[in-house]
Every structure is written in structure tokens, then in C-alpha cells.
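To whoever picks this up:

The nightly regression suite flagged N-glycosylase/DNA lyase as changed. Nothing in the input moved, so I suspect the structure step. Input below, exactly as stored in the fixture:
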Amino acid sequence: MAKHAVLSSGSKMWRSMSCSKSELRLDLTLACGQSFRWRETSEGHWTGVMGGRVWTLTQTDETLWYHVYNNQDKQKEGSDRKRRVGVSVLDKNTAEKRFKCAPEKEEDEPLAVSSVQNRELDEEMLRDYFQLDVRMGDLHKEWGAADCHFKHIAEVFKGVRMLRQDPTECLFSFICTSNNHISRIQGMVERLCQALGSPLCQLDQTSYHDFPTLSGLADSSIEARLRDLGFGYRARFIQQSAKQILDNHGPQWLEGLRSIPYLEARDALRTLPGVGTKVADCVCLMSLDKPEAVPVDTHVWQIAKRDYKYAANNGQKSITEKLNRDIGDFFRKLWGPYAGWAQSVLFCSDLKKFQSLKETAHLKQPVKDEEGEEEKMPCKKTKVKTECTGTAGNLKAKPACHKKAKISVKKEPVM
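Regenerated output under the current build:
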């Protein structure tokens, strides 16, 4: 049986590209709730599905290593729903074909890595998926100059990037997030793929499947099938949203939202069953090239109140449309056009699973775990100045060191 690749077994079966951990940290980026398909299959090695193939990624201080497992039918490799990660130069193909793993030469040998001819294409996919043309060092410098709290947190949480996911996978994964937490969402997305996605390969008795197609999700029998798999009310939202997209817009509609303004794309997504403002903002930020989108959930609301002394609508007990808009505008004014990227760093730092990093750096403060329960930790209060926004009596709290970020992002390959 084929095994998951491990770099320590030898680099012959691996490819590599220059990328420092300050620009990308796999353990933070792949486990912070953006994508739900990556697993740590051995220490520091992350295996998941991207572009219709299975990858294992790992890294050293200045190098990103990757191993791509081939499907059996090499002639059609990469053309079956080709590179759905969203690279603009790649054609999309939604044909539904089923593949088995290529036979391994030895029982303990990983499936063969992609050929030399595909190396440039594979690297381009990785650069697109991790948006490596955006220089995180430049962004952190700008945000840190405008926001002392962000600078404090970012000293530890460097390398958190926004992924550029396939819009179909991103949308239907986030429909599953309603009243849910990361580990449970991962299980639901995995069951969805195993039940409806094309099989790709099997490694160490783990079967990997591609994400289902829109036509597969829109079938009238899907709701009942997903309910049997534990999706509850989300089963209807998944089937109805897929059907509505195909009936009213067509299979390329989601990708087309990348080319329209943020608010138009968000409002278009909100017409789908089960898609509210937060889910729409997540899809905009994580798959539709809208870096200004700031998804607001209870984590982000608490961050705004706790760390930025955000006082507007302080008496509210739930997130309304107005509160969502106000908090998003608050952070967009503070951080600029890549506000969603900055928010993801603070969101990541607030997750229970990453608190050991903050403890090591003596950055203890109240946090919420994935289920929303608060842990009490001592923290150093930020001194703030409060000023009136002049609208409906709302207060906008601004830490003394906060200034509006002037973002001038350099887009160039990470070396």
C-alpha cells in the first residue's frame, strides 16, 4: 500500500521552491479554518487535495517542499476538472471521471511525484493557492506602523496567509460552518467528498477524493443523502444552492464573481440559500480575490471589543447586519485594502489550538476556543482614546498608536 511521503526518507521524490516561514507557515495557514481539507499526516507534513490531485507539503526555514501523488490515468492527469485551484492560465474542466491510484513499485514507496514537465505548472499552482505574489513582510510593516496591537501579535504569528481556493469548494465548505466548529466542519467536508467526490488515491489506508462538482451537489437526491451523513439543515442549503447556481447562472458563475467589485460579489452570494453575510465574506476573502472583506463572527467581534475597545453598538447581544458592516468598516479604515488578511492573523492568534505560541512569547490574554468558550488569561490592557464618529452616537475606540494603514503592496514572487 502506498504511503504518505516524508521528507526525511529522502528528497528524491520531492520538489522545492524558495519560500521563507516569515512569508508562509503551513501549520498556521492550513489549520486556522480557511480550508478544511488539509491534515498533518506526520510531524510538519500536511496532506490535502488541491486542483484535483493529492499533495503533501512541508517546509524548512527558507524552502517549501511539495510531493504530488499521481492518479492512475496519467494521460488525463490535470485535465479532469483541471487545476480547480483557480490559476487564470489553466483551463477548467468539470467532467466527472473516477480514478484509482497508480500502482506503487514497492509497498512502502509513495506514489510517484509528477513529471519534470509538470514542475513549473505545479509551482505556479502553489504560488496561486498561497498567493505568494503578495509580500507579507510589507503588509506586516504597514499594519504594525498603524496598529500597535497587531504589531505585538504579528511578532509571533508571522506567515499566516490567505488562501486562494476554488470558489465551489470554498462556498460549500463554508455553508457547513453554520453553528459549527473547525474539527466538526472538517469531518463534514471529508464525508461530503468521500460520498460525492471522485476518488483520487489511497495512502496509508486513507482515501482521498476530489471535491464534488456543482452538478453532483445539485441532484435532487443529495439532501436526503447528506442528512443521513449528519449534515442536518445544512443538507438542504447545499443542494438548493448548487441547483440555484446551475439553474440561474451556470457553472462558471462563481469564478466570474472574481471580476466584479466586493460588495456586488457579496450581495450576489447572499441570494443563495444558507449564505449569510459572514459566509459570503469568507468566500469573497478566501476564493474571490476580495482582500478587503472582513468576515465578522463572535471571534472577531470579541477581538474588536477586547483588543480595540470597540464600543459601537455595545449593548447588542448578537451580530446584526449593521454591526457587521460597522466592524468591517472599522478594520478597513485601520488596516486598509488588505484588511481581511490582517484580520486573519488576529483570528488565528485567538484560536485555542495556537495559544502555546502566545504563551511562549508571554502574550497571554483571554481567548476563545473553537466551541466559543472563553479561557481566562492575564493580559496587558491597551491604552485607548475614544472619539465620536458623529453617526447615531456610536463610539469608535482608537488605541493611541492606531493610525490608518497606508498599504502599498508589492506583488512579486517570494524568493
